[in-house]
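Why should sequence recovery work at all? Because a backbone constrains its sequence more than one might expect. Tight turns favour small or flexible residues, buried strands favour hydrophobic ones, and helices have their own preferences. The token representation captures these environments compactly. In the example below, the structure is given first.
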């Protein structure tokens, strides 16, 4: 039975009656349908409700779809050339609708010529005081079996090409009908275990697939959708949870002791008392690294929550156990800041730190690599240059990845290979991860959270101002500066290489100079096109308080710490992602003063834009903002989601179905607890299903 079913669903779509090679190619290129099975899972995206018949008198909505029953008693072809059209009068007992066809005029003329009773369906529009309907669907009443009339007609996505080649709408629907004539209940294996079906009261798979294409009642349709969403999320979660379980089987190094370096740093050089959250995270990591299994942990904490010091203490722990460590950051600037900051903190300790990036000079790089391979360097900090194969450690025990969302899962895996056993991984992100992504993109990691910021932070007032208030905003910044504070002015940067952004920044710089004459104010400009030295000098000027204003592209998004800065002005704020805005805002509010984040936007901001600004003004929690961002932008645009396949869900919605996702995650965990490798007979179908999925590479990496 199993092989039989596999065969029919794997049949090339070409062999379906009415398809053939040419159409098959189109279906493949336009909709990704190559087999019967693909067509089966190409779900309708909406349904036409034909369970109700309206009367013309009661048509309310201009532009709404209605079904009407009535008579055509007159039709004619009018107009010439492009405006040539067929019009017909359609009446029921309550009123009249004019029907119009611009296409297939001659063919339709034959259909309506003799008049008679029709059932029509289409979009009614108000036109010159009449209702009219262009290109309605229509059927002669005597041909309609009203008792067996399908109440919902599925609508499938189509492309212009498909429409031109008669492969859209009714024509496509006919193919699906043909398909279902060939498929029986025996061909569709139930892939979910019976216990899950029962516990969650799910419709069986065959019925669900049938109902989603040809629903008989709304209730059954909803049940079918629910079942298929459940299946999709459940299978996805099984994959991710399995990956997590496999991590747990991965042997890892033991960091048995807390030694000299850790203790000495803690006692003598730690510049502040750790917060409770920081201590708790350290405890979790300490526990993880003692059991002989590789750690895969995500450290999540809002901007400024103090992740770096936690990372540093972990590195010391590794060093105390005779391991090397590395820390990878997404940008040159951030990597350098870590290098400097950590270097400063460890300057009186007997620990050797090195820096490596794509920009490192050849000679320097060679030296670093030699020392690294010899085990002389204990901490290597850098950009993704660290994952290159030429970077060889003597004994790498711990990798820290800062700002995870810019690195993919694959890059993480590269670091695993740098020692005989995979080193422990600590992934840190300042972008709080929405619940749904935490379950998908990062679902294989254990999560630690720093919830509370270190003490002494002042809340930041966030203000949205349209362009017309620019002068007032500048006046405000001037008062702040005249009171001894400093300000950031940030311009959007889409791509560091994009000339336009740079022009934009330069123009902005000139404009700022008009408000802040150089006779009185120092302005530092920082952007990605400068040499490292130039940028560092300018940045340093600002850090030391010599410059009053720092005009920058988003290079300052991560890193710099200037407690005296009290204003963050963001230009064209509508062009930034919310999480990015939140990160920028986190640059101020670090000192004793009240701080401000001003979002300057165009005067003609879109409603969505307005909503996004409103979110920033009202929300201070990075977590809530990330959720909102996801909602407003969609998961596809959030970095890192694509690798996980989270954005590829076909029927479930990563945002709307978050509760169902939680439910399926629990179910997946429970199932794997009882049968990790899906070897029980009741899990055979599920295992086969996973192994035959299109994205099976993901699964094979897992199993
Ligand atoms: P992020 O989590 O954004 O990487 P950082 O690690 O850069 O944050 O820390 C932000 C600032 O907070 C730094 O200046 C750091 O020295 C300071 N900091 C971190 N932990 C504490 C603490 N427990 N008490 C006081 N200040 C702290
Ligand atoms: Mg940081």
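From this structural description, the recovered sequence reads:
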């Amino acid at each position: 039975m199993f092989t039989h079913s596999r065969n029919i669903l794997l049949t090339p779509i070409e062999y379906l009656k009415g398809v053939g090679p040419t159409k098959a190619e189109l279906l493949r290129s336009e909709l990704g349908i190559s087999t019967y099975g693909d067509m089966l899972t190409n779900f309708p995206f909406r349904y036409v409700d034909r369970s109700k018949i309206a009367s013309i008198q009661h048509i309310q909505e201009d532009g709404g779809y209605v079904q009407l029953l009535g008579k055509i008693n007159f039709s004619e072809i009018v107009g010439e050339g492009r405006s040539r059209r067929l019009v017909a009068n359609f009446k029921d007992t309550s009123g009249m609708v004019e029907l119009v066809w611009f296409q297939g005029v001659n063919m339709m003329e034959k259909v309506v010529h003799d008049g008679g009773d029709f059932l029509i369906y289409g979009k009614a529009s108000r036109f010159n005081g009449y209702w009219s309907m262009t290109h309605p669907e229509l059927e002669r009443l005597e041909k309609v079996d009203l008792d067996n009339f399908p109440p919902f007609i599925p609508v499938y996505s189509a492309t212009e090409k498909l429409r031109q080649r008669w492969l859209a709408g009714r024509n496509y629907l006919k193919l699906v009908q043909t398909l279902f004539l060939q498929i029986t209940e025996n061909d569709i294996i139930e892939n979910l275990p019976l216990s899950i079906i029962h516990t969650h009261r799910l419709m069986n798979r065959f019925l669900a697939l049938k109902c989603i294409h040809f629903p008989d009642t709304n209730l059954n349709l909803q049940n079918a959708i629910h079942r298929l969403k459940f299946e999709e999320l459940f299978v996805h979660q099984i994959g991710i949870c399995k990956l997590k379980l496999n991590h747990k089987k991965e042997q890892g190094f033991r960091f048995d002791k807390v030694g000299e370096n850790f203790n000495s740093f803690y006692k003598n050089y730690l510049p502040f008392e750790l917060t409770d959250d920081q201590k708790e995270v350290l405890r979790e990591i300490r526990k993880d690294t003692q059991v002989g299994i590789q750690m895969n942990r995500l450290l999540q904490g809002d901007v400024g929550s103090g992740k770096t010091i936690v990372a540093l203490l972990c590195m010391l722990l590794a060093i105390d156990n005779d391991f090397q460590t590395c820390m990878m950051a997404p940008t040159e600037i951030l990597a350098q800041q870590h290098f400097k900051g950590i270097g400063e903190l460890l300057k009186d300790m007997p620990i050797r730190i090195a820096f490596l990036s794509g920009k490192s000079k050849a000679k320097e790089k060679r030296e670093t690599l030699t020392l690294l391979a010899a085990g002389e360097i204990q901490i290597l900090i850098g950009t993704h240059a660290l994952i290159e194969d030429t970077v060889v450690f003597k004994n790498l025990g711990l990798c820290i990845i800062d700002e995870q969302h810019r690195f993919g899962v694959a890059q993480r895996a590269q670091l695993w290979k740098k020692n005989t056993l995979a080193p422990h991984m600590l992934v840190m992100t300042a972008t709080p991860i929405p619940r749904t992504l935490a379950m998908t993109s990062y679902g294989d990691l254990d999560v630690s959270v720093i919830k509370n910021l270190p003490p002494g932070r002042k809340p930041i007032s966030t203000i949205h101002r349209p362009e017309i208030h620019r002068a007032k905003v500048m006046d405000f910044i001037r008062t702040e500066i005249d009171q001894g504070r400093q300000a950031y002015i940030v311009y959007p940067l889409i791509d560091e290489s994009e000339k336009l952004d740079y022009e934009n920044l330069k123009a902005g710089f000139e404009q700022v100079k008009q408000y802040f004459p150089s006779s009185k104010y120092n302005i530092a400009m920082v952007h990605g096109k400068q040499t490292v030295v130039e940028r560092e000098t300018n940045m340093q000027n600002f850090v030391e308080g010599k410059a009053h204003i720092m005009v920058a592209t988003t290079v300052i998004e991560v890193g710099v710490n200037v407690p005296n800065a009290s204003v963050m002005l963001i230009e064209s704020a509508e062009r930034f992602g919310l999480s990015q805005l939140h990160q920028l805002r986190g640059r101020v509010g670090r000192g004793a003063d009240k701080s401000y984040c001003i979002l300057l936007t165009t005067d003609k901001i879109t409603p969505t834009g307005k909503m996004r600004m409103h979110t920033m003004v009202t929300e201070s929690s990075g977590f809530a903002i990330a959720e909102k961002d996801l909602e407003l932008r969609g998961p596809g645009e959030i970095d890192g989601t694509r690798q996980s396949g989270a954005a590829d869900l076909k029927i479930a919605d990563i945002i709307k179905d978050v509760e169902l996702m939680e439910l399926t995650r629990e179910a997946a965990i429970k199932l794997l607890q009882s049968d990790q490798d899906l070897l029980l007979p009741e899990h055979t179908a599920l295992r086969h299903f996973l192994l035959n999925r299109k994205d099976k590479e993901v699964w094979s990496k897992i199993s």
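A few observations help interpret the result. The CA atoms of residues 303 and 586 lie 6 Å apart.
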